Amino acid sequence: MFRRVMIAAALVGLLASPALAQSRVELSGFYGWTFSDGVSFTATAINGVTYSRADPKDGQSYGFTFGVFINPQAEVEFLWSRQSSKLEVTGAGPKLSGDMNVDNYHGNFIYNFGPAEAVARPFIFIGLGATGYGDATFPSKTLPGVTRFSWAFGGGIKAYPSKNVGFKATARWTPTYIKTDAYGWWCDPYWGCTVVGNAQYSNQIEFSGGLLLRF
User: Fold this and answer.
1) Has this prediction a pTM greater than 0.85?
2) 191 three-class SS
3) Which residues contact 137 (CB under 8 A, 6 or more apart)?
4) Which residues pair with 204 in a beta bridge?
């Protein structure tokens, strides 16, 4: 929670600065579908059955963005999105499934192609922030959620049928760092030996569209 508050506060401070106060502002709401995957974990016995993998299930997603233009092409943006999902735990026994939401809190830097007055503008972006995996509610138990560092890459197109109202279509990939598993040793005659790790990420790939307002 502290990380989320710090990210939001930093973005609000940036967007409220005098240098950006005179720039054009864009606000959007969107709805889409997110494809997700999870990570493996050390084999664990649950009710006498061994399980070794947890995956968020694909599901619908929605959210909003608030962006301010630094110049006609460059834009800074705060994004919040939520995926309605389930946490699926798999292994040697029957699949275990519990309701769970996945929330993203990102600060994005966007580059918009073409002139500001264009009817259609392609864009690309990169973002940094956090992804929160909410409490997973199973029939007999609730697992507490976790928040991890994540980043995002993506792009899309904005279309403006009028000066202040438009539409936006976006594709976004969000890899979230979950953990690092040690899998061996690396040795050097000078530096000696060190444990080599294998980082595991949970990925989200979202396709969305929505209404865009600018003023």
Assistant:
1) no
2) coil
3) 98, 99, 100
4) 36, 174
Tens digit of pLDDT for each residue in 138-189? 888 888 999 999 999 999 999 999 989 999 999 999 999 987 765 555 565 6
Distances (CA, A) of 6 to 66, 118, 130, 194: 17, 35, 11, 35
Rounded Cα distance between 38 and 59, Å, is 14
Alpha helices in 2-43 (DSSP H): 2-15, 18-21
Please answer whether residues 39 and 21 qualify as being in contact, where contact means their C-beta atoms are separated by less than 8 angstroms: no
2-17+25-214 belongs to CATH 3.40.710.10: no
Dihedral sign computed on CA atoms, order 48, 52, 56, 57: negative
189 φ/ψ sector (left φ>0, alpha ψ -120 to 50, else beta): alpha
Domain boundaries, the chain: 2-17+25-214
Encoded amino acid at 112, one letter: N
